[in-house]
Amino acid sequence: MYDRMQELSGRDMEKIHNAAMDLLKNTGVSFNDQEALEIFKKNGHKVDGNTVFFKEPDIVKALKTAPRHFTVHARDPEKNVKIGEDDFVFLPGYGAPFVMDVKGGQRQATMEDYDNFCKLIQTSSYINMNGWMMVEPSDMPHDTVHLDLNLSNMLLCDKPFMGSPVSRQGTLDGIEMAGILWGGKDNIMDKTVSVSLINSLSPLQFSDEMASALIELARHNQACVVASLIMAGGSGPVTLDGVLVLQNAEILAGITLAQLVRPGVPVVYGSTSSAMDMKTGALSIGAPELSKNIHLTAQMARFYNLPSRSGGSLTDALCADAQAGVESALALSTAARSGINFILHAGGILGSYIAMSFEKFLIDEEACGMVLNMFKPLALTDESIDIDMIKEVGIGGQYLTHPKTFRLCRTEFFMPSLMSRKNPDAWTRDGKKRIDQAAQDKVAQRLAAYEKPDIDPEIEKQLTQYVEKRKNA
Amino acid sequence: MYDRMQELSGRDMEKIHNAAMDLLKNTGVSFNDQEALEIFKKNGHKVDGNTVFFKEPDIVKALKTAPRHFTVHARDPEKNVKIGEDDFVFLPGYGAPFVMDVKGGQRQATMEDYDNFCKLIQTSSYINMNGWMMVEPSDMPHDTVHLDLNLSNMLLCDKPFMGSPVSRQGTLDGIEMAGILWGGKDNIMDKTVSVSLINSLSPLQFSDEMASALIELARHNQACVVASLIMAGGSGPVTLDGVLVLQNAEILAGITLAQLVRPGVPVVYGSTSSAMDMKTGALSIGAPELSKNIHLTAQMARFYNLPSRSGGSLTDALCADAQAGVESALALSTAARSGINFILHAGGILGSYIAMSFEKFLIDEEACGMVLNMFKPLALTDESIDIDMIKEVGIGGQYLTHPKTFRLCRTEFFMPSLMSRKNPDAWTRDGKKRIDQAAQDKVAQRLAAYEKPDIDPEIEKQLTQYVEKRKNA
Prior knowledge:
Two copies of one chain form a homodimer.
Chain A: H1 10-26, E1 29-31, H2 34-42, E2 47-48, E3 51-52, H3 56-65, E4 70-72, E5 81-83, E6 89-90, E7 98-100, E8 106-108, H4 111-122, H5 145-156, E9 161-162, H6 168-181, E10 194-199, E11 205-206, H7 208-219, E12 223-228, E13 231-232, H8 240-261, E14 267-271, E15 274-276, E16 283-284, H9 288-303, E17 308-311, H10 322-338, E18 342-344, E19 349-350, E20 355-356, H11 358-375, H12 382-385, H13 387-393, H14 403-408, H15 424-429, H16 435-449, H17 457-471
């Protein structure tokens, strides 16, 4: 397939691989967690203080047991998702402390906001997996908020969800609660029901929270995205090829730990590395370097036969304006076209992760639908081409009134629910609304129409009791 | 290269080709121009009334003489552009009757607007070729406006430009004026200095204006985009594969005429076919079907070894909002990634071609820059990876203060001139401007800073006199 974006040759990928092997062997990666260090030691790794060194066969062995494709089970099995190879999922934004409104008003996010995002995800046609910490609720105690997020994920939405990676205990809470949801922990030990995000601390470190969460998740067969988010020129090299090498070393180190804990546990090769803005010194996620890195990361993941993760609808804009549209669409479509399997941040993010916007969530969601439609292949059969019909209509004829047009016109094309195709008169009559203003009305409608999915009342009670018990512990 | 968009197999393309051959042979194409019919008759085509029939060898012969790559010469040779294979150009919007302002105010376009677009193109870092009829000036007499547009294109901008295809005489005027600009008509008979847009009238027709313009352009070795703009379900089949067949027949018929007139004249395989919106019955150019068609059209053009043309930053939105951003970025990046060579409408279009927006022009222009940056390949040399530097910084080290970061940080990354990377405080201090509002200020700055490119005063005088003489004829 012709593509003006860079195709890495086998030789290029070997070069990145070999440089990462050099780093892993000679510089090593720091794991700030005792159990992680013990696991590495037990498996013959050289460990010096917190620094773990890797030999190429260690990496090769880990890559052999990591699956190239896996299913995340939802409590409604119709909503199970597959991740890997040609299969991919769209997820909401992650980790935003603020909510931005249509007028540019910024406020701290609350638990109610979190719940509302769960409701929008439940009713979404295109966001097919629930996230984690779409917003950070400011009105909940920090130490126990993960329990509330888990509970909302499990009760308000029956799609598969992301798990809690906040700490060892936070992770175990998530697994206990998933056990309750699935009628017993034994039921999920061979069944992946969550995917959690494990970020390295660049350069070349894993924090204690992340390392211990990774171990517990792997132990319980819950999938982990091992991701590196390097700011080129800040927490990593100023050139993107250096970034590819550094992130590769970090990701492979994390994946190796997961496979040592439990060979075969699903892992995802993740990155949203991007450039530093040279004027502000801050990370830019609207930068074209982000899309370039996404495209290259997808290729490196395929090189290792691993599912891949990147960001999606990312932007530096602080309101859902044309900049937000352009930047988000470029990154989202790059991720999806280039073969990313786990597209996080596919909806809602504004301002380099600082805020979520309900309106932008709906706009991005529709962009996901458009991208999916772009991928729908033409049938290219004699029937779909229908040369006889084209001949029958002939020169200067009319297709609008042809029976085939009537028959197919409601199913053949993408039908937007938000994007406007009004003519200027109709648009003026409707108050010349921008799409973000129109989305505001739709958010209210969607939330009003939301219905909580059915759940066994006994399970709901047990989940709620677990949360209460842990909060009072 | 892995790509989630559809790759046509050789067999698929043969199928589309064969169906088009069937149409060309048995249904034919109507050319509403006497000279066109005579040319076809003289070359052995069956002609019945205005309908011309084509045998496959006629098409094959035409394709043999059509170049796969050509140069459009600019009066500043530094600004020559290459079109075909890996080389591509971005052009402004085309044919909009209105101008839309930031507040959604719509007014008829004027000659001053046209001139201002010429000035923005002249000062653009990314739009590398001037267009034609970016807006239709309402304040100029219809019969002679093409002379004014030519004059502005030639005097206000020294980039290569699109030519006038409005009629036989309109085309000849453009060629005469180009002759003056190049110091004599003889100087351009072997040199392509313009590209003109020849649209078919779907299904299966060429109007007298378009057919006669095509003949004169080809005769004078000026490049023609032969393009089909089918509204699937309106002026063509309701399925996109039917559209591919119909547009293929139309484009190949036009290209054959051009090659009969002058074998070897540069031609471009063009389409911006898209879907009809089923609610309004109007063409939707924000639809994902547009991008899908662009991607498939690029493949069909490569099948024939021809340069390709599509639309770029197209949208149905009536203001430069997030919808405009999403739709424009999807079509623009699809065109550029998928290998289109002549990307028309890369800047400014709103509302399904009804209006141009100066602000959106600047936003789209920056999107072009971002897309170009996405294509810039990594060096992937030992020097650019610089493993020693990564080892030196080591675990938990700092790249920000490394000399290499200082050395490269101003050249390594894309520097936006419009897209905001402000933090919320800075953005709030600056009045929480949306990108379209920020663009408004930039438009004024760009126009104020514009300088008319130097030109031989004698040539300028002759051009002006030609226009005056023709207006008074």
